Amino acid sequence: MRPQTDASVLYRNPARLLQRLIQFDTTNPPGNERECIAFVSDLLAEAGIESTILGKGPERPNLVARLPGQGSAPPLLLYGHLDVV
Predict the structure, then answer these.
(1) Residue among 68, 70, 74, 34 nearest 49 (CA)
(2) Residues 6 or more apart in contact with residue 67 via CB below 8 angstroms
(3) What is the reported pTM?
(4) What is the DSSP secondary structure assignment for residue 62, as one 8-state letter?
């Protein structure tokens, strides 16, 4: 069964969401993306999207989220980063 995703959660107030993301200090080095990753993970969960936090160390985590597709189309991978260089 496919989980219900409430995309409106992600689009409620895009300007406020961007402001909030910019407030996280993820300057690299050292990165420190942990708090920002937790925020995005919570946002995805609120929208019904499961995610997993993985990483080499606690201050440099990665967030993996997967949305099941429909039909026979090949998978699509989207990749981004939260640190600032």
Answers:
(1) 68
(2) 5, 49
(3) 0.79
(4) E
